[in-house]
Protein: Acetyltransferase
Organism: Vreelandella neptunia
Amino acid sequence: MTEREKMLAGEWYNAQDEELLMLRRKARLTMQALNATRDDDCAERTSLLQQLLPNAGSKLWIEPPFYCDYGEHIALGNNVFFNFNCVVLDVAWVTIGNNVLFGPNVQLYTATHPLDAQLRCSGLEAGHPITIGNDCWIGGSVIINPGITVGERSVIGAGSVVTKDIPADVFAAGNPCKVIRYLHSSP
């Protein structure tokens, strides 16, 4: 099993593997070009986003700067918006539904490191997928930790740290993030 296969399977893997280094370098060069585009150069941005995020649906809008590890492990539905300075560490799959909004400085972390110091010093790491359902709004400066699922139509309040799954149709906030109230289907 290759290090990339281990990574995507959620097993401990060596992040310094040559294939993974090459894929991250390719993504970083594309991000550097994306983040340097002018606001009026939509065609260039679109082309670079298609290169960086080949599993994206239609009507994707990202306000640069944007950062990720690989890009190709991010599956985006239609009509997804990332505000300025978002980070997606996609060492495991990040799956985002349709009509999802991300405030500025949102960070999605699939990557994790061993708690055991000796194992951590070996350089091994792992990843656990993140899933965000349709019609969600993730407020500014939210951090979503590895292995989390956010249910459809839920709203995560600004500054929250999501350490446990969030059900559908709720407003959740805080550190750690918890359900504050259930949402109605009408505005």
Observations:
- The chain has four helices and 19 strands.
- Residues 3-182 form a domain with the UDP N-Acetylglucosamine Acyltransferase; domain 1 fold (CATH 2.160.10.10).
- The first helix runs from residue 3 to 8.
